[in-house]
Automatic annotation (TrEMBL):
<dbReference type="Pfam" id="PF13556">
    <property type="entry name" value="HTH_30"/>
</dbReference>
<feature type="region of interest" description="Disordered">
    <location>
        <begin position="152"/>
        <end position="173"/>
    </location>
</feature>
<feature type="domain" description="RsbT co-antagonist protein RsbRD N-terminal">
    <location>
        <begin position="30"/>
        <end position="155"/>
    </location>
</feature>
<dbReference type="InterPro" id="IPR025736">
    <property type="entry name" value="PucR_C-HTH_dom"/>
</dbReference>
<feature type="domain" description="PucR C-terminal helix-turn-helix">
    <location>
        <begin position="313"/>
        <end position="371"/>
    </location>
</feature>
<dbReference type="InterPro" id="IPR025751">
    <property type="entry name" value="RsbRD_N_dom"/>
</dbReference>
<dbReference type="InterPro" id="IPR042070">
    <property type="entry name" value="PucR_C-HTH_sf"/>
</dbReference>
<protein>
    <submittedName>
        <fullName>PucR family transcriptional regulator</fullName>
    </submittedName>
</protein>
<dbReference type="Pfam" id="PF14361">
    <property type="entry name" value="RsbRD_N"/>
</dbReference>
Length: 378
């Protein structure tokens, strides 16, 4: 939306007269709204973007010009969100929160400094401004998502190098030196790239020891995930904090997880994936033959049931095994009558017998159900 010259000049002059304190309060309101929409408590880049955007609009007084001034920051924000696995819908929710916060806080900021038709024009121009800002951020997000997709398709997928018959990969000299410098009880974390090498700047940070291919690095355990995430250009897996004795084994496990993400065995859109979040998926994907053996052992007879009956019993059994709750409580959670829940449990006991009371076989049942239920549901 464009303004006639006189209105635009009036708006620019009026906006410059706004109270700096009130503008600062508005910025904080917008920051809180955006961070809350994204489920974060603090984010330096979001704070920088909001402050720069408010300042640019106050000084320019016109949406398109002010948006062009902060476009590089919005592009940076959009690209970062893409690396974190966000899509345009998630980005839109953040800007929707910003728009609501702006509308709610604007009257307090304006006070009596701006009146009449200029107030209406100011609100309209601000909404146009937010639309321009969103367009810049979305363009950055989509370009980065395209770059990530191209890189994943073009780069050779990394695999965990092994020695001998699958022993842990050998640590580099620099990594062994890093471990040698640790005091008793001191720990490091393992960081492994999925498709793209770790950034050179990260690998050269004090306390970081990376291999020559920049696939795996040992980093100080004191570094938080947010710090590491800011450095990354591509996806990586963050392993647990380990001591000297466990380092080589941790490297092998984290590299294996990265390889499974790279070849699509495990799917996770996040830029930095905690290894702990992949444990269940790795267990299920580690040996498909073993999974099929457990499915055949416990559920071969179930294949003769009608599909709906089979799924209903399997879902109830899974919930019973994982929750360890009384049948009546599970009935309430599933939204079925208590007599239905008891009937299902009776049928399950008839089918599985003593396996339900043996700890080892209960574990087999849980793993087998995790593997087979998606197949049965489809």
């Amino acid at each position: 939306m464009s303004l006639v010259v006189s209105e635009r000049q009036m708006l620019a002059v009026s906006s410059r007269e706004l109270s700096p304190t009130r503008l600062s309060n508005l910025s904080e309101q917008i920051q809180r709204a955006v961070l809350s929409a994204g489920g974060a408590s603090d984010d330096p880049l979001v704070n920088e973007v909001v402050h720069a955007a408010v300042t640019a609009f106050v000084e320019e007084g016109e949406a398109r010009t002010a948006a062009a001034r902060v476009a590089p920051l919005l592009d940076r924000l959009g690209r970062r969100q893409a690396r974190r696995g966000a899509d345009a819908a998630a980005l839109f929710e953040s800007f929707r929160a910003a728009r609501i916060a702006t509308q709610r806080g604007l009257s307090t900021v304006i006070g009596e400094a701006i009146t009449g038709s200029v107030v209406i024009r100011l609100r309209e121009e601000l909404m146009s401004y937010l639309a321009f800002l969103f367009a810049h951020a979305r363009e950055g997000l989509e370009l980065e998502r395209e770059r990530i997709a191209r890189a994943k398709a073009e780069r050779p997928k990394v695999s965990a190098p092994t020695k001998g018959n699958g022993a842990s990969p050998t640590l580099t000299t620099s990594q062994r030196r890093a471990l040698a410098r640790l005091r008793d009880g001191e720990q490091l974390v393992v960081l492994t790239a999925v498709t793209e090498p770790l950034p050179i700047a990260l690998c050269h940070q004090p306390g970081v020891a990376a291999d020559d291919e920049r696939q795996t690095a040992l980093a100080p355990a004191a570094w938080c995930a947010e710090q590491l995430c800011e450095w990354l250009d591509g996806q990586a897996v963050l392993g647990p904090a380990v001591t000297i004795s466990d380092a080589a084994g941790a490297v092998a496990l984290v590299r294996r997880a990265a390889a499974m993400l790279a070849d699509g065995t495990i799917e996770d859109p996040r830029r930095l994936v905690p290894f702990q979040d992949l444990l269940g998926s790795m267990l299920l994907a580690s040996n498909p033959i073993l999974n099929e053996l457990m499915i055949a052992k416990h559920f071969a007879s179930w294949e003769q049931m009608p599909a709906s009956r089979r799924v209903a019993l399997a879902e109830f059994l899974q919930l019973w095994l994982e929750r360890g709750q009384p049948t009546n409580q599970l009935a309430r959670e599933l939204g079925v009558p208590p007599q239905t829940a008891h009937s299902r449990m009776k049928a399950i006991r008839q089918l599985l017998g003593d396996a339900l009371d043996d700890p080892t076989q209960r574990l087999e049942l849980m793993v087998a159900l995790r593997a087979v239920l998606p197949r049965w549901r489809s």
